[in-house]
Amino acid sequence: MKTIQIDLHRTNYRYQVKIGNRILSEVLTELLFNYTEKRIFVITNSTLHALYPEFSKTVIPKDIQAECLILPDGEQHKNLETVTQIIDFLVEKKANRQSIVIAFGGGVVGDISGFAASAFMRGISYVQIPTTLLSQVDSGIGGKTGINHKAGKNLIGAFKQPYQTIIDVSFLKTLPEREFIAGYAELIKHGIIRDPYLFQLLNQKNLQELKADEDLLIDSIFRSCEVKARVVEEDEMEASQRAILNFGHTFGHFLETYTNYQQLLHGEAVIIGMDFASWWSLQQGFLDKADFEIIHYHLCSLGISKTIPEVTKETFIRIVEYDKKFSREGIRFVGLTGIGQARIFDGVTADSLWDNLLTYIQSDALLKID
Ligand SMILES: NC(=O)c1ccc[n+]([C@@H]2O[C@H](COP(=O)([O-])OP(=O)(O)OC[C@H]3O[C@@H](n4cnc5c(N)ncnc54)[C@H](O)[C@@H]3O)[C@@H](O)[C@H]2O)c1
């Protein structure tokens, strides 16, 4: 089992991320050993419940009673009504300020449960048990919690760090292939922005080899979480450096919004977004051609390519400028100066990104426009 320690200086708070295969029962037993409340509040969804019906019986220590709330599956339920449902459940079951919420599921369950835990009685502890690759390397650590509003994704939220995060790779066995690739986007992103060794490690293997090699999977998730943990320690509230985690997200969010969240999973959009951001970095003269090609061919090997209907300059600019990463000074765009070296460029204009988009779609790009 591997452990990452996250130290947050702002609040003088620290917690651990445990990573391994089939570790959940052992880690939970240790975690709850001195827990006098003897009742935990498990939040999961219908898919996880169907796949792991014995979850509470098999991994939760015998002396602990698990109260379980099963949410409907899907991003469309990441909203205030579901938060109310969780709060009602906690009230009905007489949870108190010492109670612990266990979020068992992907990023959606983790984000909603974390947010509900941050609000209930002004904040109670929650443990993340992320079950998708995306949530294991990304949303399960770092303390961003939240829900969607009809005006935008993740518009309502709070910073609330978990009590502990337990990453058990055995859950990935049931994850659909498409979800695995979407999570892989964030895994490889951490290599591209900060850890050239991680990138190299993954670049030597294909996805099937990665899935089949438990040690490699644990090692790469560990390294990926290390990158995120160190960035979060440096800048918990995303005042500056944490923005490098948005590599690939400006263009990725544009694609998700433009296609109405109907065609691409978030990670798939990020794969194309990283390809575009690498192209942009090459065009600006920050990234050399050899490094661009290594990244580009790796991203191509993931099998995500997309054709979208023709987009006008006005629509592109409107969507990009509505993004959270846009301010009066322009876009805070994350580019590359090498593999493992991301840099934040402030004041990039939507106009200049549009010019790059025109050259990008004429190149050997992952995105085509009809
Ligand atoms: N808080 C953060 O820092 C942060 C970072 C990135 C993304 N997010 C959020 O995370 C969400 C996306 O997370 P996600 O990609 O995990 O999506 P998700 O939670 O919707 O999970 C994807 C699908 O996989 C299913 N699933 C989960 N675990 C499974 C397993 N082990 N086996 C089989 N199926 C399983 C889920 O039920 C769902 O149908 C978005 O809402 C996004 O905004 C948050």
Describe this structure in words.
- With 370 residues, the protein is α/β, with parallel strands linked by helices.
- The protein folds into two domains: 2-173, Rossmann fold; 237-369, Dehydroquinate synthase-like, alpha domain (Up-down Bundle), CATH 1.20.1090.
- It contains 15 helices and 14 strands.
- The chain has helices at 24-31, 46-51, 55-59, 80-92, 107-119, 133-139, 177-194, 196-203, 207-212, 214-234, 249-258, 266-283, 289-300, 313-322, 350-362; strands spanning 2-8, 13-20, 39-45, 65-71, 100-105, 125-130, 144-149, 152-159, 164-168, 306-308, 326-327, 330-338, 341-348, 367-369.
- Strand 11 (326-327) and strand 12 form a beta hairpin.
- The longest helix is centred in the middle third of the chain and has 21 residues, at 214-234.
- It is globular and about 60 Å long.
- Bound molecules: nicotinamide-adenine-dinucleotide.
- Nicotinamide-adenine-dinucleotide binds at residues 45, 47-48, 51, 73, 75, 78, 105-109, 111, 131-132, 134-135, 138-139, 142, 144, 154, 171, 174-175, 179, 182, 266.
